[in-house]
Amino acid sequence: MPAKDIYHSIVRRVLEKEGWTITDDPLHIKYGTIHLYIDLGAKNLIAAKKNGKKIAVEIKSFIQPSIINEFHTTIGQFINYRFALKEKQPERTLYLAVPEDAHQSFFMLPFVQGIIQDNRIKYFVYNIDQENILKWQN
Which of the chain's ends, N or C, has fewer CB atoms near its CB within 10 Å? Predict the structure, then answer.
């Protein structure tokens, strides 16, 4: 099983504070002989009464010495996970959890925004100190 991101516990608390119930930590997807581990699986109890909305969340800190290399790896993982979810758990929507500082300093760059838009990456921005979600980006 892969190591957890340094902000894993924070993102879990953030989602729980927002009313999400963590269903899997990590969310294990088996696709043939491939085993994938997405950081979190969650469902919103309030929405579940309406349509049972479920999400999967990949958590990244973006604090590595080369943020562009971490971004490359993250996008590749996201695309792989989204494909596996579409086939194995199509009721789940995949999101990338992005800390506020990385969003402001890196994710707003035109190159990064272009990659995110071109690859239809859904993400949310969270504040590490206040432990809340600042924005959902679909």
Answer: N
Write the CATH number for 86.
3.40.1350.10
Task: Please check whether residue 137 is in contact with residue 109, taking contact to mean a CB–CB distance below 8 angstroms.
Answer: no
Average pLDDT value over all residues in the chain: 91
Mean of pLDDT values over 61-69: 92
Say if residues 103 and 125 touch (Cβ distance below 8 Å). Answer: yes
DSSP 5: P
Burial classification of residue 77, based on how many CB atoms lie within 10 Å of its CB (0-12 exposed, 13-18 middle, 19 or more buried): middle
Structural domains counted in the chain: 1
Its domain, for residue 97, covers 16-49+63-137
- Please tell me the pTM assigned to this model: 0.91
Contact between residue 128 and residue 100 where contact means Cβ atoms under 8 Å apart: yes
SS3 25: coil
Task: Confirm whether 56 is domain-assigned.
Answer: no
Q: Which residue has the higher pLDDT, 49 or 131?
A: 131
